[in-house]
Amino acid sequence: MPAVIIPATFTALIAGLKFWEDKKLLTEQQLKDRDEAINVVLEAAILTKGYLYNRRELNAEQDRGKEEELSHAWQKAANCIYRFDEQLFQSAQIKALGWADPREWVKAAQQNITVTLDTLIKQCEWLKSN
Predict the structure, then answer these.
(1) Per-residue pLDDT at 5
(2) Are 41 and 80 in contact (CB under 8 A)?
(3) Residues of 96-129 as b/e, b for ≥16 C-beta within 10 angstroms?
(4) So which domain of life are we looking at (predicted)?
(5) Which residue, among 36, 8, 109, has the nearest Cα to 97 in the 3D structure?
(6) Does this model's pTM top 0.90?
(7) pLDDT of 13
(8) Average pLDDT over the chain, rounded to whole?
(9) In CA terms, which of 18, 24, 82, 128 is 20 to 30 Å from 10?
């Protein structure tokens, strides 16, 4: 049986198609990673909403242990979202610092920085849909 000779242009075409397929997979993985990071932010927001509801509506006492948990949840969220959205990272970082040390809320207010949960949730929803 004679040897099959593949023209160089055909080899280049195959290499090009493989490159685009690999690029597509990478993009899908990046989207998956971004969605997972957004979910970590949403989890922190949900934990925070629950805690604030208990404090405001049920007159629950301040719980520094729970606030430390919130601080860690927000720091985890900040770390996860860092490479996908700088603004959301900064907002999550402020939340982490504020729950760790309530004096950080005062500093943020003095710098005209407000980070509402509803705004963060809307930002996450926007990121997921775009």
Answers:
(1) 55
(2) yes
(3) bbbbbeeebbeebeeeeeebeeeebeebbeebee
(4) Bacteria
(5) 109
(6) no
(7) 56
(8) 86
(9) 24
Quote the radius of gyration of the chain (alpha carbons, Å): 23
CA atoms within 13 A on the CB side of 16: 6
Q: Are 89 and 120 in contact (CB under 8 A)?
A: no
Which range, 66-75, 109-118, 119-128, has the best average confidence (pLDDT)?
66-75
Q: For residue 61, what is the DSSP state? A: P
| Cα distances (angstroms) measured from residue 63 to each of 44, 97, 130 | 16, 16, 37
CB contact set of 128 (below 8 Å; sequence gap of 6+):
35, 38
Nearest Cα to Cα of residue 34 among 75, 89, 73: 89
**Model pLDDT for residues 9-63, shown as the tens digit of each residue:** 555 556 555 555 555 555 888 899 999 999 999 999 999 999 999 999 999 999 9
